[in-house]
Amino acid sequence: MKKKWLIITGAVMLTVALAAGAFAATEPSNIRVYVPYFERGWVNMDIPPRIVNGRALVPLRPVAKAALRADISWDAATETVYVQTDSYTVTVRIGQRVATYKNLRTGTTETRDLGMPVMVIGGHTIVPVRTFFEPFPVDIWWDASSGIIEIHPPTPRAE
User: Fold this and answer.
1) Which residue from 101, 37, 46 is spatially nearest to 69, judged by alpha carbons?
2) Number of neighbouring beta carbons within 10 Å of residue 60
3) CA dihedral 73, 68, 129, 134 (to 10 degrees)
4) What is the structure's pLDDT at 156?
5) Sheet containing 50-52, strands listed edge to edge, beginning at the edge strand earlier in sequence
6) What confidence tens digit (pLDDT) does each residue in 91-113 have?
7) In this structure, is the dihedral angle defined by the CA atoms of residues 154, 155, 156 and 159, taken in order, positive or negative?
8) pLDDT tens-digit profile of 113-123?
């Protein structure tokens, strides 16, 4: 009887812990994204970035447009997002943890692990900021005390 009680208690505790973790994982935060040379610098987003399992996640469309001057397209049938810059075409699928980067200048293709699956929250594609943007010529800075993510392109870009 004691063993049965321990198993039931353990199962309940595990269920509560997992449910709390899943809820907390999708909670928005007060994180802001700053991209120098982009309008006033602050990226306007319909939904806020968030921290999930220690990773900063950002809405892909507004951040990629600001930091990379990218064009973004969506294929609803395959749940695939395409990010097009002057140098790269990036393909990510919802629920997958990899992104495919095709370098348009060299013709090479690289598949990279993003560390967690790409998600949709509130109708917006969310990606881990550091691992998604690492292949691009940008520097990413995180200030945990202020909750600011800075993405620095190598040089100012003309409009």
Assistant:
1) 37
2) 22
3) 110
4) 56
5) 50-52, 55-59, 124-128, 119-121
6) 999 999 999 999 999 999 999 99
7) negative
8) 999 999 999 99
